[in-house]
Design a protein that fits this description.
The complex is a heterotetramer, with two copies of chain A (about 375 residues) and two copies of chain B (about 400 residues). Chain A is of the alpha+beta class and about 375 residues long. Chain A has eleven helices and nine strands. Chain A has a four-stranded antiparallel sheet with strand order 2-3-7-6, with no helix packed on it. In chain A, strands 1-4-5 form a three-stranded mixed sheet, with helices on one face. A two-stranded antiparallel sheet of chain A has the order 8-9. In chain A, a hairpin with a 2-residue loop joins strand 2 (about 140-145) and strand 3. The longest helix of chain A has about 35 residues, at about 225-260. Helix content of chain B is about 45%, strand content about 15%. Chain B contains 14 helices and eight strands. Chain B has helices spanning about 5-25, 25-35, 40-55, 70-85, 90-105, 105-120, 235-245, 245-250, 250-270, 280-305, 305-315, 320-340, 365-380, 390-400; strands at about 125, 145, 150-155, 170-175, 185-190, 200-205, 210-225, 225-230. In chain B, the strands form two sheets. In chain B, strands 1-4-5-8 form a four-stranded mixed sheet. In chain B, strands 2-3-7-6 form a four-stranded antiparallel sheet, with no helix packed on it. The longest helix of chain B has 26 residues, at about 280-305. Chain B is globular and about 75 Å long. Chain B starts with 6 loop residues before the first helix and ends with a helix. Classes of the chains: A alpha+beta (about 375), B alpha+beta (about 400). Chains in contact: A-B, A-C, A-D, B-C, B-D, C-D. Chains A and B meet through strand 3, strand 6, strand 8, helix 9 and helix 10 of A and helix 10, helix 13 and helix 14 of B.
């Protein structure tokens, strides 16, 4: 067991950190957010140049063959800067579906395009009734000769408005909440019958509501793996989101500490008030506990025992959520009014952390499931 | 000790409820029920109706339009307004400036302003906080120099709520920069927002709303007649105003309404296998908040019932700081329950029918899109009007002798 | 609505307060606790002289005809002093069963004895399997001519070791957890077949484990009211326990504030540290919220709508429990080591509050029931 | 970064587990599993077995009986001991005094004491706190005057854990009352508890246990040879000792064992309609604690893995204060879950098989009667060994620069 970064990993961290320092000042970010896509194509190309977009793919497929630790490093840096680009949707989620569910031919075709920054993916899964249940799928896929016809509606498809291809869950058999009968399809976003309405999310990012109206796809569109594939990629995504949350929390904590040191009230730095000192210390405790869980997530992302992986990832989601909420809320509280405004980064961290908390299951969702499944420490 | 409402109080509640039902415009009610703040027109229209009925400022002296009611009766009216929900009479006019004028104003000021405050013919906003003077209000810098029969005001105010709607502003300014103590040398002025030299700049809060503003004063001429109370003794007015602020801050009626609504929503809210309300954990969290709110309701009544004694004692009831601290905590907790109920569709930013619709309305249900925005917005509750930290400092000093 | 005490109520409060000041110093209490009964017969007689023991009974029955507010006043004072006498078991609980369930003849016989301090009662209800469910009764009562035969075992009968008569729940019909078929019996503690083993409770008071081995009682032993009677008396008891808790919390808070003012560390009174000041303020908030609920309990104790009464009393139990736990724990934490010892009152308040929290249902029990029953604010 | 245990580490865990199973006396295991502390005889017997195996003090230098292991390997041993559960080697000997002697002791002191500390041939207790010197340890007053080749010790120590079992005590005493700073003029002494003039008076804690004591010193003669380190520089030893205290305080292994046991108990615990474990709310609370404990386990591993770097950095890992704060919070939270599981029968005070049985054993189940006692006892966790408040002060100073 060893928690140190390798030389290569440190290099990766440093170069991305430098890039973001350069491209992700608060005002620059505001500009990206106000643009039509809601993020920066420029920065995206810079990621591509840095090799980030091909990172998790096998070298044979045109990637770098990096693992979950590298994803953690990258997502954490992006979290610090509140980066807006579709890295997690395209590389972690889309990439995950390709790595674990696509054929060698599909990967040979698509991975280089992703790595070059020319192909964006999004995961169209959540439906109006499904809440956080991955197995709750009403969208249908019906056999049509060799191919399939997809019919249904998906909501809150993060970065679905700019994606070139959509990874779509649909049911080929069974009832709406059956675990069996779910398949995953890879569908061009401009396929006939696909209509998208983009919208802003509560943290100012972008998502889409997507309708599939008798969308015809060929046989190859169906990836291999069904619900198990979805769960695996969801867990990898939770690991990446957890790392992003750590970046947000760390930056929010730094911002708050700086403010405590410089803001004066009653003739002294407010950081000299013990109640705020203790709150800041508690923030630190929360951050370290969350960081530990983000590391656990990176370790568990590649766990092959599905039950073991799910169990740990649920614990990660609960603990990251709890601590993210405390750190986000206290960032605002200890700043006071200034962090309530759009013109200051503090509140944006709270917003992003809230969105992360509500992606792929909130605390109560995972806590309930985990407790039904026997808890964290199961008899060996 | 009689801990039940009297028959008369119960009858009054019924009367209020029926009157509100008959008089509140449907669109105002609908907008309030969605969790949004009322538009300016809605606020003004509704307050005028209350004013005509004699119910806008029942806590004022009878000669100025108040009612000879017990505190409990006033509580009933206020709770019914909040829990309908209908707009609450504008706090700046009715709870802040009005009582200050009644206590400190000249006869002319009272005669001129009080009826307009009660009827909302004039909309006032509050010019207290400054960028460097938040919790430490007494360190304010905005200055007024007397020149002849005018003060010349220069400086900046911030967090000025609804300044964009306001006709006038009441202002704390420094009139004697050389005073021995920070709290001395401050004066309380009334300023027409149309006076040349005033600039209002919106502050957009993290929920995307325009509620607060910065207000800049550049050689603004204010007639000396607009001074309230004694020059350089404005801190007395400010202290009086702030100490009146607390019972209202519990907002028990409003919280009860939000919970009632959440229960209905959560019964229908899509939650996978079952509606959100059928999740025992969610239900427990909700009930837990209800329990605390019930306690806060009782605490509010205790503080109100103690009001007369409090005046003679000259000290606030120890329970009164509880109202702001727990009241805002509970409002925040309720907003978190809405986020929880909304689930993944809560990620959609809200559609604002007033603004040029950021999202199309049917991306998600209206309440879902408002859940996170409200949660973000309500983080302010524990910051403004005396932050939780300041409240605890006050308690430690006043009641614990620490 | 009026929260002021009447002149008579204030008199009652003052005279009891004076009595307890005189008789309930910390060392005196230690002596009572170490005695065989675990409380003081002397003080009990003084209560009788003060009229406390006949307080809630109708004047016609030989009582004073006082209500729930007076009970609240008395229980609060006893809480402040951590009084050990069986006031709640005999007067509130036993008295409640007599008032609502006994015949005029029984009351004429028993109430004067209680009022004179010559008769002690205890409520034998909890069974090993029942946890906090009032309707979970396995003890049986079988018809035997005109009378009944009682068979079963009751645990944690508070003050059951010194009681002269026991109020016992037993099932005359139905299955163990049926709401119907439960009756309440009044049984002399020295009846044949009753065996008692006294023991200490965690707060140093006394209780008994009681076995009923073919105990024969006559027809008059059965009170009227069944489970509804039990629930009514339980609610009246919750009201009294809540007031006792307020007394404990108030005294613990005062003790803590005094300590913060006098204890010095790092060359200054520890009460000058802001983190402790804010904790003390929070303690105050908790106390006031709890006090409000104790008043609600007094108001609801006589509510005739059973559902309304139960609902409010559940809310009371939850809120008193929450705040009692905070105040009890923080009393110890802010004192530090000294309150961890038997020689200091601080820890004893924590202990008593913990016991109160676990009588007639803990927080989770009532929170669960309340949420199943629709919550606090039900549609009018 | 490699976040899994290596095969070697896994094999070692297996080896430890098997060895403990084969060597831990059944009555010791049973007593520990009930949640009680071991008797003196059990503690001594078990530590001797660990000592003979070479596992009593693996963190010491190899020349003094330590093992050339990684921090992770030591963690595994310690976790296995805690989670069996078996008695942990006596902290006063192995984690406090031992390392101090290795760092500051004379060669004679090391040779004489270290083997006896490791084998528990001598049982040491800790004489730091005084009635007026708790969190503010440096204000201690217990004095030692040098007379010839002896110190004469006068004063009082308190909260002396297990002094009733101890053969020796290590003591902070004031040797120079005139020193400029409080922290100066303090010395670190080793004292034989049989020396005339020492009186031990039990302190009974609120759970009824006799764990701590007051120790009085009345003209106690201590040979100068028993001074550790430099005279008047005893604060260096104390600081070193206290900074070694933290990782052990997380006690993750022990908490995991308590949770594992609670899960078994709660499955059988009578709960009206169903066992307590089948109540979704109870289960959620339990799982929530497990989640936090899992995070704390990872944090502990991170701090341990960082140990070497920490030495060269000269600064503790920012995560290390987390261990004491969250570790004790979780132990307290677990004790509250036991109280919850015990229900009304938890009101029965515990039966102590050692003492003259206060209660007969079958009034309630053993674990039920212990639940509240343990809850009361564990309130100490956030007070001693550097209270939570002190830990947060330290964090604010050291890591936040506040």
């Amino acid at each position: 067991m060893d928690f140190d970064l390798s030389e290569d990993q440190r290099l990766l961290q440093d170069s991305l950190s430098k890039l973001l320092k350069d491209k992700y000042g608060f005002e620059q970010r505001k500009g990206y957010m106000a643009s039509e896509t809601g993020w920066s194509r420029d920065v995206w190309n810079a990621y591509a140049e840095l090799g980030l977009l091909g990172m998790p793919f096998a070298e044979d497929d045109g990637g770098l063959g990096y693992g979950a630790v590298e994803t953690m490093i990258v997502a954490e840096q992006m979290g610090r800067s509140l980066a807006l680009e579709p890295f997690i949707t395209t590389v972690v989620m889309g990439g995950g579906f390709l790595r674990h569910g696509a054929t060698a031919e599909q990967r040979a075709d698509l991975v280089p395009k992703i790595a070059e920054g020319k192909l964006l993916l999004a995961f169209a899964h959540t439906e109006v009734q499904s809440r956080f249940d991955l197995h709750d799928v009403a969208t249908s896929a019906k056999k049509d000769g060799d191919g399939w016809v997809i019919e249904g509606r998906k909501g809150v498809v993060v970065h679905g408005d700019t994606a070139d291809m959509l990874v779509v869950t649909a049911r080929v058999s069974g009832a709406r909440r059956d675990r069996d009968g779910i398949e995953v399809f890879l569908i061009p976003a401009d396929a006939k019958g696909v209509s998208r309405r983009g919208f802003k999310t509560s943290d100012g990012q972008r998502a889409a509501d997507i309708t599939f109206d008798a969308v015809k796809v060929d046989a190859a569109a169906k990836l291999t793996g069904g619900l198990a594939l979805v769960e695996r990629v969801a867990d990898e995504t939770i690991a990446a989101l957890s790392a992003e949350a750590i970046g947000c929390m760390e930056a929010a904590k730094d911002l708050t500490i700086d403010y405590l040191k410089t803001r004066k009230q009653f003739g002294r730095a407010i950081g000299s008030f013990q109640s705020l000192q203790h709150r800041a210390a508690e923030m630190m405790v929360c951050l370290e506990q969350a960081r530990s869980m983000a590391m656990l997530a990176a370790m568990m992302a590649s766990e092959t025992n599905d039950a073991e992986r799910r169990r740990n990832m649920r614990a990660v989601k609960v603990e990251i959520g709890r601590n993210a909420r405390f750190v986000g809320q206290q960032t605002v509280q200890m700043h006071g009014g200034i962090a309530m405004t759009m013109e200051y980064a503090g509140g944006h961290y709270l917003k992003r952390l809230t969105v992360i908390e509500n992606m792929f299951g909130d605390m109560d969702h995972h806590l309930a499931a985990l407790s039904e499944e026997g808890g964290v420490f199961v008899a060996a | 000790m009689e801990l039940r409402f009297t028959d008369e109080e119960r009858a009054f509640r019924q009367e209020v409820r029926e009157w509100i039902d008959a008089n509140l415009p449907a669109d105002t009610r609908e907008r309030m029920a969605s969790g949004r703040t009322p538009t300016k027109a809605m606020q003004v229209d509704w307050q005028k109706r209350l004013y005509d009925k004699g119910w806008a400022v029942p806590h004022w002296k009878v000669e100025w339009g108040g009612q000879p009611w017990s505190a409990i009766k006033r509580f009933i009216l206020s709770e019914e307004i909040q829990s309908t929900p209908a707009p609450t009479p504008l706090g700046f006019n009715c709870n802040m400036l009005g009582p200050v004028l009644i206590a400190f104003g000249t006869e002319e000021q009272k005669k001129h302003f009080l009826p307009k405050l009660a009827s909302l013919d004039l909309w006032f906003c509050q010019g207290f906080s400054e960028p460097g003077a938040g919790s430490d209000l007494a360190s304010l810098k905005c200055a007024a120099k007397k020149e002849g029969d005018h003060y010349i005001v220069n400086g900046q105010k911030t967090w000025t709520t609804l300044a964009q709607h306001a006709d006038w502003i009441f202002l704390l300014v420094r009139t004697d920069p050389g005073a021995a103590k920070q709290q001395e040398g401050i004066s309380f002025l009334l300023v027409d927002m149309k006076t040349p030299g005033i600039t209002v700049r919106p502050i957009i809060t993290i929920d995307g709303a325009h509620e607060v503003n910065e207000v800049f004063f550049d050689d603004v001429k204010v007639p000396v007649a607009n001074l309230v109370g004694t020059e350089n003794r404005g801190w007395d007015c400010a202290k009086f105003l702030l100490s009146n602020e607390r019972t209202g801050q519990a907002r028990v009626g409003a919280s009860k309404e939000r919970i009632r609504r959440l229960k209905l929503i959560a019964k229908e809210a899509p939650g996978g296998a079952r509606p959100v309300m059928d999740d025992p954990r969610f239900r427990s969290r909700l009930t837990d908040v209800e329990v605390q709110l019930k306690a806060l309701e009782m605490t509010t009544l205790r503080v109100l019932a103690d009001e007369n004694r409090q005046l003679s004692r000259g000290k606030p009831n120890p329970a009164s700081s509880v109202l702001k601290i727990r009241g805002t905590e509970l409002q925040q907790a309720i907003s978190e329950l809405y986020v929880m109920a909304a689930g993944p569709y809560g990620l959609a930013a809200p559609n604002d029918p007033e603004a040029d619709g950021r999202n199309e309305p049917d991306i998600a249900q209206d309440w879902q899109t408002l859940a996170q925005a409200t949660y973000f917005n309500w983080r302010k509750q524990s910051i403004y009007g005396g932050s939780t930290e300041i409240q605890k400092n006050i308690m430690a000093k006043a009641f614990l002798g620490l």
